[in-house]
Amino acid sequence: MSLISLSPSVLPARPGGSLQRGTYYVQTWGCQMNEEDSEQIALGLESIGFTPATSPREAHLVILNTCSVRKKPEDKAFSFLGELKMIKDARPDLVIGVAGCMAQVRADEIRKRAPHVDFVVGTAQVIRIPALVEEALQTRRFQKRLDLPERKGAIVTDVPQRAVGRQAKLKSFVPIQYGCDKFCTYCIVPATRGRERSRPTEDIVREVRGLVAQGTREITLLGQTVNSYGKGLEEGRVTFAQLLRILSGIPGLQRIRYTSPYPRDFKSDLIEAIRDVEPVMEHCHMPLQAGHDDLLRRMRRVYTVESYATILENLRAAVPDIGLTTDLIVGFPGETDEEFEGTLAAVRRFQFDGAFMFKYSPRPNTPGALMEQVDDKVASARLDELIRVQTEIQIARNEAQVGRTMEVMVEGPSPKNKALLQGYSRDFRMVHFPAREVEPGTLVAIRAVTAHKWGLMGEWE
Ligand code: SF4
Question: How many CB atoms lie within 10 A of CB 61?
Answer without folding.
Answer: 25
